[in-house]
Give the backbone structure.
Amino acid sequence: MPGMKSQFTTHPVILVVEDMESLRQTMLEILEDAKYLVLPAANAGQALELAQSCAGPINLLITTMHPDGMPGPDLAFCLRKRSPEMSVLYSSANPLAVLEIPDPAEAVSSMLPRPFSKTTLLSRINYSAREPHLTFRNS
């Protein structure tokens, strides 16, 4: 990915892991319009590959609770080895999914209930930016 290093240091990097192509594309468009640099992945394997090829840290992971390949919390754990300050939003239509998040301090603040609107998505990202894991501000 030649030339990517300067892009990654200019804009916050969000890794979106979503198996539904139409939702992944919609999220990509919303986030790029908001000036985020978005890495879209259809499954956990693609997400790990994108993270390895990324020149800088990933600031935020938005993932389903159960992307193909591994559970969302396990994916976050793996990605935090490379980007320890990364925040996470878990997307789920199941309100009980919050019980699957191992860190109780992160559980409630990291849920993105489905369905969600553009406003909800962006406000949850802005809220995450105030959390200790996230070190960026949208500019």
Q: What stands out?
A: The chain is about 40% helix and 15% strand. The radius of gyration is 14 Å. The longest helix spans residues 21-33. The longest strand covers residues 87-92.
